[in-house]
Amino acid sequence: MRRLVIPALLGVLLLSSVTSAQTYSDNSVATVKNWYRQFLRRDPEPSGLMHWSEALRQGNPSALLLSGILGSDEYYNIAGGSPNSFVRSLYLDLAGREPTPRELAYWTSRLNTEYPKDVAYAILTRFPLAWSPAQYQPEPTYYPRRYR
Fold first, then answer.
1. What is the pLDDT of residues 59-108, one digit of tens each?
2. Does domain 28-133 have CATH number 3.40.50.1820?
3. Residue (of 66, 86, 67, 84) closest to 76 by Cα position
4. Which residues fall within 8 angstroms of residue 10, CB to CB, at 6 or more apart?
5. Within 13 Å, how many C-alpha atoms sit on residue 125's CB side?
6. Between 30 and which of 25, 49, 55, 138 could a Cys-Cys bridge form, CB atoms 3.0 to 4.6 Å apart?
């Protein structure tokens, strides 16, 4: 009897671990990959991909999550490492244009009292079409992996 119970328990444990591996039909992973490629100019590391895509699946606002990426030290440094270059980079990435002198002065002054993440969020909400998850589609799965 013990010979049957132990293999049966092992089978149940194995089966439950296989079924707990999730595949998602939403495009949260593709969205996060696109954000990393568009704004950080690289592919996400596995832990970052898992963190941000899981946060999207849990219903966190996209603008809030993306502001975390845009407000990161990495993006700030890619942008040039100064308040002026950070604001200019946000405008180029999100609005497709340079900020006006007035906009540049306004946002750089806000960086004196706010975190880059907060300024990024405020600018993000003004230009939603540049980053909206709705524009991203999952990667095609019919191509061989070497073409992705």
1. 999 999 999 999 999 999 999 999 999 999 999 999 999 999 999 999 99
2. no
3. 86
4. none
5. 7
6. 138
